[in-house]
Structure formats: structure tokens, C-alpha cells
Amino acid sequence: MFDMSLGEDLSLIQDQVRHFSTSVLHERHREFEERHEVPEAVLAEFAALGLAGLELPETLGGAGLGALAKVLVLEALGAGDPGAALALDGLGAALYPFAELGGAAAIETYAVPLLDKPAARALLVWGDSERPGGSRKPLCGARTCDGVIPWVPAQRADLVVVLDREGAAVLDAGFRLTPIKGSGLRAAGAAQLDFIDAPIRERWSDRAGAARALARWQLHTAALMVGLMHTAAETSREYAMQRVAFGKPIAHHQALAFLIADMRSAVDATRILVQEAAWRADRGQPFTGAAATAFVEAVEASMFVTPNALQIFGGQGFMQDLPLEKYLREARTLGLLAGGVDLAREIAGAEVVASADGFALSPILAEEP
């Protein structure tokens, strides 16, 4: 039997973040979306919670709590506003190339200084683009980066980290962010990112480390999607319990009742996959395939949950008076991060093919207490 309880410490952290997410992020999500940023007062309130350094080693001033704690926090923040969650955590997923490729020295050089500046942003982008015929052109060479990324969820950045299959590059100059309207995650900002002979400040080459950094980024994004899906499913369920048709709440009609149950199951199943992959990472076990699988499931589940949540509201679900259309936009946009779902499918599929027991019972589910 596997005990899935979180323990007192993680439960307290989760409750604290849920309160902040509900009372601040969810209540003001339209304001943040219109501003394309989160106000300084909210940044300061988030900084006071001490969550930005959750995964940093204690020796460098962090909490050293690991991947599972991080995905729990991200799920709670994603339930409020995933775009704001990206804007609040200035270091964000950029920590992962530092940790997996550069080690403690890179974290101390690049990550720690950002935590002392609440408005600072480090931006992580995927640097492999596929050409017709299957060939790939990385954004970065040995010394410079050149190319254009049409959309990134930020309008300013102090550091840009370009992750690809071979490693990662750190840049602090030579790039330009041109603000655009964007579709989802507007609270984080939206811009086109141009590299023009951008000089690389530091470059690490390690395929295994790059794979782990990407996997952590996929978990980071998938956790936000779980929170978003949970809010969308619960919002539509509550409405279905209140809306009466043919003499009873529409949630009591069988077809809709089954749909609501399927939506809740999709959220819970994705949550388990995300937490399992995070558990693997914290235990030092191989987790790249599990993270890719969780990301794929998060994308596919979100494309089931958010459109159906909107449809339960009928035509009014498309109106900006309600957040349902926003949930759909956010879900689609999150699926573009971390290299996108096609890359995750490729990784997850390769993991199954390479493993002789690819469909064996996961150790996290088989563990004895």
C-alpha cells in the first residue's frame, strides 16, 4: 500500500498558497490580464511568502524542499491565475538548467541574485526548432544565439536561458523583447523575442542534464495546468448544481453528470502523474519519461476539461464577463511551453520503447509503507 498523504509541512504550505491564490490571484485575474503584469504590491506579498526559493538548496538560502513541494505550490497558483504565477516567480523554470547543468556555482551566480529583486525575471526558452524534412536548427551556437521566437510569456527579462537537446546557454545581452497582445497567460506579459548575434555569457553541454532540465520544466508547466483544470472543472460543476432545467439542476441529468465526473477524473489522474514524476525526481530516480508523460496527459486533459467547462455554461461561457473563455485560452497556451506536446510525446514514446518493462507497475504505486 502506498501512502499518498503529503505530511504536515507540505499540507501547511499548500494551504497557505491556496489562500493567497484564491484571495489575490483569482479575485484580480482580469486586472492582471489587462495590465499584462502583476502589480508591485502583489509581487511583494508573494516574496514575503518565501516560495521563490522553495527548490534552492538550503546552503544557498533556499528551503531545499524539492520537486514535489514545487508542483503542489504551482498547482495552487495555477488554480488562481497561471499567467500571474509565471510573473510572480521571477526565477521560475530557469532554475532547472542552472541546477542540472551548471550546479551550485551557476545557481549562486545567476539564480540567487534574482531572488533579491522581486521584479527581476529570468526567461527560459526552448532553442531547438524543427525544419522541413526533420532536420533541426538550434538557436544557439558555440558563442552566439541568432533567431526569433514569435511568442514568450514575458515583456522584460534580466536573463534569458536557452535550453536545447545538447545543453543550455545563458544570455544577459543581445536580445530584444517586443511586446505583443498574446492570447493566454497575459498576466505574465507577451512579447516576440529576437536574438541578433547575442553573445553567450556561459554555455553548458550535457545531453543528460539538458533532458532532466526539460523534464523539470515540463513538470512545472503541467502542475500549472492541473491547477487551471481544477478551477475550470469546479466552476462548471458549481454552476451545473445551481442552474435548473426541466425541474432539477442540470448536474442531475445523466449525460451532464457523467461529463462532470469524467472531468474530475481527468484532473485527478493528471495530478497523480505529475506528483509521481516529482516524487521520482526527489528520490533521484529516472524521471524524464514520467515527466513527459505527465505533460502530455496534462495537455490532453486540459483540452478535454476546459472546452467542456465552457460548454456547460452555454453561450455565456464565451463572454469575458465569466472566466471560462480565459481558462480555455490559458490551457492552450500552457501547452506551447517546454518545447510543446509533440516533443513530450517523442520523449515519452522513446522511454517506453527503450524500456523492457515500460508498462510495468510504477514503483511509486507499488511501494510498501
Globular, elongated, flat, extended or rod-shaped: what is the shape? globular
Number of strands: 11
Compute the number of helices. Answer: 12
Helix-strand category: alpha+beta
Q: Return the average pLDDT rounded to an integer.
A: 88
**What's the end-to-end separation, in Å?**
6 Å
Radius of gyration: 20 Å
Share of residues in helices: 40-55%
Strand content: 5-15%
Q: What is the succession of H and E elements?
A: HHHHHHEEEEEEEEEHEEHHHHH
Task: Walk across the major sheet and give the strand order.
Answer: 1-5-6-9
Short description:
The protein has helices spanning 8-26, 29-35, 40-49, 66-80, 82-88, 95-115, 207-242, 254-283, 288-312, 324-334, 340-354, 363-366; strands spanning 122-126, 128-130, 136-138, 144-152, 159-163, 167-171, 175-179, 191-199, 202-205, 244-245, 248-249.
